[in-house]
Amino acid sequence: MSGLPDKVFHRLEGALDEESALPPRLSAPVDPAAIECVTGLYRRYFPPGGAILDLMSSWIGHLPPEAEYRRVVGVGLDEQELVENPFLDEWHVQNLNRDPVLPFGDGEFDAAAICVSVQYLTRPIDLLRDVGRVVRPGGPLVITFSNCCLSGKALACWRMLDEDGHLRLVSYYLQAAGNWRDIECRHRCPDMAAEPLYAVIARSGGPFKL
Q: Phi and psi at residue 160, in whole multiples of 5°?
């Protein structure tokens, strides 16, 4: 249980996620300077040679181009967008709001990412708990977001909060999941970016234990 009323996880739009994802939206969610900040975080936290899980993935690859990873897996809604992502070795089409259980084994990945999409998750705690299962103990999760969103698809609780509130909310998700540690919040505002970038970073504690 999240400890929050169910209505805060509701969205204004009633369309299914798959319907709203078609046709493919091959456009950048944040400006290039903010994307470079995302890449910088991945460069710092993701181990070279590791297996990386990119959740709510799309056609843009935010990983540092000079880094070599053993395996990069994307999970997203739109197959055409996933096909266009040059960093992915493999991908899975999955609606994480309908099914937050990932099709991977315990500790299969060394790190994971959710880029500018956490505000659209209707079952964020369930998903983050399972991400903590598939990321090896001690492996990082980097969650990034800006101050912009599609208001009709963002959660009610997200729309009610300011940027500091968003950082606290994502931190709460990770705490409520019960298998993340060393949670830290970062406010990164690139000088040339039209919009600021925020990040919450945590380390996996392994599979959830009661």
A: -85, -10
Q: How is the chain split into domains, by residue range?
A: 6-204
pTM of the model: 0.84
Distance of CA 28 to the CA centre of its chain: 15
Per-residue DSSP letter, 140:
E
Identify the pLDDT of residue 74: 97
Residue 102: CB atoms within 10 A of its CB come to: 22
pLDDT at 105: 98
Residue 181 in contact with residue 189, Cβ under 8 Å?
Answer: no
Read off the DSSP letter of residue 8.
Answer: G
Q: How buried is residue 66: exposed, middle or buried, by Cβ count under 10 Å (0-12/13-18/19+)?
A: exposed
Q: What is the pLDDT of residues 98-124, one digit of tens each?
A: 999 999 999 999 999 999 888 889 899
User: pLDDT-derived band of residue 147, with 50, 70 and 90 as boundaries?
Assistant: low
Contact between residue 204 and residue 139 where contact means Cβ atoms under 8 Å apart = yes
Handedness of CA 18, 76, 62, 200 (dihedral sign): positive
Q: Out of 3.40.190.10, 3.40.50.1240, 3.40.50.150, 2.60.60.30, which CATH number does the structure's domain 6-204 have?
A: 3.40.50.150
Q: How far apart are CA 203 and CA 79, in angstroms?
A: 29
CA–CA dist 146, 199 (Å, integer): 9
Taking only the tens place, the pLDDT of each residue in 123-134 is 999 999 999 999
